[in-house]
Amino acid sequence: MSTPEVKLITKIIRELSMFLMLHGYEQFSIETDKEKTLTTFRVKVKTLDEKTKNTMLEKLNRAREIEIETYGWQLVGDLDQKSELEIVGSLVDDAKIEEENGHHSIIITRKNPYLKKH
């Protein structure tokens, strides 16, 4: 995995953590699964309020902007203000929230932009 991709993935994790903590969530976990073609982030939290769910889905389901790949990861987390996942949504492909037994899982996917086409 390339160094820029590693940095981008770790900053996405940081932004997700910061977003949740700034919105009052103190118990959550984040798992990543890096495959050749796809990185999946799974954020588990006991319960999300409706406003937070809607905000996350709105911000994370923005259209991905491949051109931001070259500089976007540098912008993530550089500002000392309340995180609203503004740039993260431009760096991922899909986000959904699943609920089971009062617990929520936020599943975010990012296709590997560095794959060579055959």
* CATH class descriptor: Alpha Beta
The CATH topology, please? Heat Shock Protein 90
Largest sheet report: 4 strands, antiparallel
- Helical amount among residues, as a percent range? 25-40%
Which residues sit in consecutive blocks of at least 5 with pLDDT less than 50? none
How many structural domains are formed by the residues?
1
How many angstroms separate the termini?
19 Å
Mean pLDDT: 84
Beta-strand proportion: 25-35%
Number of helices: 4
Describe this structure in words.
The protein is an alpha+beta fold and 118 residues long. It has a single domain (3-111), classed as Heat Shock Protein 90 (2-Layer Sandwich). The chain contains four helices and four strands. A four-stranded antiparallel beta sheet has the order 1-2-4-3, with helices on one face. The longest helix is centred in the N-terminal third of the chain and has 20 residues, at 3-22. The two termini are 19 Å apart.
What's the helix and strand layout?
Layout: H1 3-22, E1 28-34, E2 38-45, H2 50-60, H3 72-75, H4 88-91, E3 94-100, E4 103-111
Antiparallel strand pairs: 1-2, 2-4, 3-4
List keywords for this structure.
alpha+beta; four-stranded antiparallel beta sheet; Heat Shock Protein 90; 118 residues
Task: Please summarize what this structure is.
By secondary structure, this protein is an alpha+beta fold.
